[in-house]
Amino acid sequence: MKNTRKILFSAALLSSGLTMARTTTAEKSPNVIYIMADDLGIGDLGCYGQRQIKTPNIDGIAQNGMKFMQHYSGSTVSAPSRCALITGKHMGHAAIRGNAKVAGSDGLLYETPLPAGEVTVADIFKTKNYVTGCVGKWGMGGPGTEGVPGKHGFDYFYGYLGQRFAHSYYPEFLHENEQKIMLDGKYYSHDLMLEKALNFIDENAQKPFFLYFSPTIPHADLDIMGEAMTEYEGEFCETPFGGSRDGYKSQQNPRAAYAAMVTYLDKSVGLIIKELKEKGLYDHTIIVFTSDNGVHSEGGHDPSYFDSNGPFRGQKRDLYEGGIRTPFVIQWPGVIPQGVVTNHISAFWDFLPTIGELVQADIPQNIDGISYLPTLTGKGIQKKHDCIYYEFFEFGGKQSIMTPDGWKLVRLEVSDPSKTYEELYNIYTDPAETTNVIKQYPDVARKLKNMIGGQRVENARFHF
User: Domain named Sulfatase N-terminal: which ranges (predicted)?
Assistant: First the structure.
């Protein structure tokens, strides 16, 4: 099976073309832990200005490393964002561009499977003999499909294969690899997944490893254990949430619950750091923290109360900055300088080529990502994106395209040309996207619109 996998991977690289990444500055490739929160806003962390929710461990990553001020998620919702992350392709080229469902071998609905032959970041790590693990939410294919983690470079998986099951923190089951583990709604899933992540670190302490840890906090439900709530109970003026028709259950103290969930996630990051230090791995491990898309407003959460989207307009499912600009902090002791803030424009699809350069591996040429390793190390020439492009198929269809000079075109109701309308902003002079200036700058809007065709190919499953 291992030999078969190597042959398939080599064929995928040859069919897509490949590039040999430059030599990294490190003598030995480090461990990599990529932590991705679920629906966490850029303004929910202390290092990005949050004043009411405590996040000292995540803030510590920024203090000990680098904070990106203009980092973009893969999409404005979960499954396509994760696809962009692990394949290096933006929404104009990604195989998965929405949360559409397909039945797994158990007859339940899971997200669209990631196709066979897609080269993933885990595949890249495997070419350099890394042990690879994914713990948390997957969202790119259910059991019995070609999209499960084990068919895309991951040696180990534990968590939610399907996203809709992740709306409950007390699920009926999780999956370990493709085996369904029955839980009967008795266990808080985040704790189980954190334990598996810590075990993965412990079991692979003597090998180079890549851990993709994707917990579901703070996605709705706003559900947190009683002892974790005590830190914030009585701190905020509350309006009880009575539940909703889309399945989110009631919460008497939604503000306290949201704050407690974010802090609980931060404490989990602290436990991962503690584990690394105890195993003597801390100085040789890259730690990344980010979020899959903008903040949500579901299950009783009011993002405006905490300024969860920071100074930006929009949230999850929007293509305004609040829906796609995400926190991104990264540390690498002895390599990334401490306390650095960068305005380099980067995105989820840049992770794969960054890893390729880091571990000196071949990477496909048919990707959209650009390595940001020169920004991290301060060595070499940092290439830049010509544009950042998105498309989204819900709510009438949306597109956006932004160029490095800050001009951004947002297209709405794209699915019906008779209703399509456009907005133009400059995010440097108007970061909150409050004033549509398309009438003042029609030539700029026309130029951006003309660029869109070169940024996308049709996708049979996801189309306007």
Answer: 30-359
Give the residue-averaged pLDDT of 160-165: 97
CA 463, 388, 25: angle at the middle one, nearest 5? 125
Model pLDDT, residue 28: 73
Structure tokens that stand for 43 in this block: 């303004």
Alpha-carbon span 331 to 97, nearest angstrom: 30
Is-contact 115 83, C-beta < 8 A? Answer: no
Determine the average pLDDT of the residues in 293-300.
97
DSSP string, 38-92: SS--GGGSGGGT-SSS--HHHHHHHHHSEEESSEE-S-SSHHHHHHHHHH---TT
Q: Do residues 91 and 391 make contact, with C-beta atoms less than 8 angstroms apart?
A: yes
* Residue 26: band (very low, low, confident or very high) from pLDDT cuts 50, 70, 90: very low
Structure tokens, 134: 């994914």
Q: Which residue type does 85 have?
A: L
Taking the C-alpha atoms of residue 14 and residue 435, their distance in angstroms, rounded to an integer, is 47
**pTM higher than 0.90 for the full model?**
yes
Helix axes 189-203, 254-278, angle to 10 degrees: 10
Q: How far apart are CA 218 and CA 263, in angstroms?
A: 10
CA 163 vs. chain centroid, Å, equals 14
| Domains recognised in the chain with CATH numbers | 2-385 (3.40.720.10), 389-455 (3.30.1120)
